[in-house]
Amino acid sequence: MLSAPAEITPIAPYNFAAALDYVRRSSSAVLEQVSDDGIYRRAVTLGGQDVLLTVKSVGSVDAPHLELTVAGGQINTVLMSEAKRLICRVFSLDDDPTEFYRIAHTDPVFGALVQRYYGLRPVTIVSPFEALIWAIIGQQINVSFARKLKQRLVELCGGQLAIAGADYPLMPTPQAIAALDPALLAANQFSRQKSSYVIGAADALISGELDFAYAASLPHEQAIAYLTRLRGLGRWTAEYVLMRGLGECDSIPAADMGLRIAIGRAYGLSRNASEIEVRELAEQWAGWRGWAAFYWWHALQLGEV
């Protein structure tokens, strides 16, 4: 079954093409597909059904307008509403960027970057659990190897959705990851520690030890403390999950090496910025530090910093 298009009109400006460019280049986007003609596709499970979400732009940066269609399953108004909410969260479509632009332009260096990527907004990861698993996999390894391990995890225990003769991969469920044999993960180049942390995170979500809705309700530092109770979750991982999994606008993973490289270069330090320097500099972006981190990551992706 294929839905009629649902219309989404973000507050202008909004640059969907720039968001898709980020997705194309992101090591965390192993389940997303972006076509050459600017169409986003992602298979997800909503309301207990596996469905394919397709999003395209039919507007412009200054007059943005998107169309969302859903294929597969029994499509109804409840499912469409859930799909629309998910896409709005993933692409930050409900956010008003006015205050972000005002703050950005008080810093000439960052202001120039924001102007270069006019209309860009952060792209979050489809679920906080997915963000957590990708963050754990990405710890202390390079991005290309991290992407390889993410793909292998999907191949080992993820599902597939067949739509119109094409197969779309699905994120493994917590139950599927928890049931993995560590020996199988080891045979697929997961370290013993990484296997333990990935399976442990899935177990924590299943048991209720980890509750993302509760984490999202907490003040920032309390949310960090809550998440870092779990084995394998340090501050960087917690801040990353809050930013990319829960869409917290002000969460900045200041220890991130890519962020430290980008800021060191942009501000003429002739070296990588330290975590402390990133946090100090980011004070001027308070309220929008997560958005700022996203911009710096995109600039690094493009080799423009």
List the helices and strands and how they pair.
Elements: E1 6-8, H1 16-25, E2 32-34, E3 39-46, E4 49-57, E5 66-71, H2 77-90, H3 98-104, H4 108-116, H5 128-138, H6 143-157, E6 160-163, E7 166-169, H7 174-178, H8 182-187, H9 192-207, H10 212-217, H11 220-227, H12 235-245, H13 257-266, H14 275-282, H15 289-301
Antiparallel strand pairs: 1-5, 2-3, 3-4, 4-5, 6-7
Helix pairs in contact: 5-9, 5-12, 11-12, 13-15
- Provide the spatial order of strands within the biggest beta sheet: 1-5-4-3-2
Summarize the helix and strand pattern as letters.
EHEEEEHHHHHEEHHHHHHHHH
Would you give the CATH topology of the domain at 128-159 and 171-233?
A: Endonuclease III, domain 1
Binned strand content: 5-15%
Shape descriptor reads: globular
Based on helices, strands and strand pairing, what is the structural class?
Answer: alpha+beta
Low-confidence stretches at least 5 residues in length (pLDDT < 50)? none
Our count of helices gives: 15
Q: What's the CATH architecture of the domain at 128-159 and 171-233?
A: Orthogonal Bundle
Helix content: 40-55%
